[in-house]
Design brief:
Shape: elongated
Order of helices and strands: HEHEEE
Number of strands: 4
Radius of gyration: 30 Å
Strand content: 15-25%
Number of helices: 2
């Protein structure tokens, strides 16, 4: 059969290989955030955060954390959760109890 020169019956254009689902998920996930240190509340307020994101900011001058969020419209908000160290409870039961049977 005589085909015109522009028609090739077995022509297959190059297509890059498809990524599997795991590779697609890895490409979409951002890298884990390292700890971001700021110097005081004023620095935390001035730290730029992209719209639609939330970032924990660690204060290097005070022992506190600020959680700065920016909504989808670009309006920032900042929370300052209070963290209190827990004191050991003297009335707390021991985790390791003697579970061996009592022998008489």
């Amino acid at each position: 059969m005589n085909y015109p020169p522009y028609y090739q019956p077995n022509y297959q254009p190059y297509a890059p290989p498809m990524m599997d689902q795991l590779a697609q998920l890895r490409a979409q996930q951002p890298a884990p955030n390292p700890m971001i240190w700021v110097q005081g509340e004023a620095a935390a307020k001035s730290y730029l955060v992209a719209a639609g994101n939330t970032v924990p900011l660690w204060d290097s001058e005070n022992m506190c954390i600020y959680v700065k969020s920016v909504d989808a419209s670009g309006v920032p908000s900042m929370r300052h959760p209070r963290l209190h160290p827990s004191a050991p409870n003297p009335h707390r039961r021991s985790r390791h109890r003697n579970t061996s049977p009592v022998r008489n």
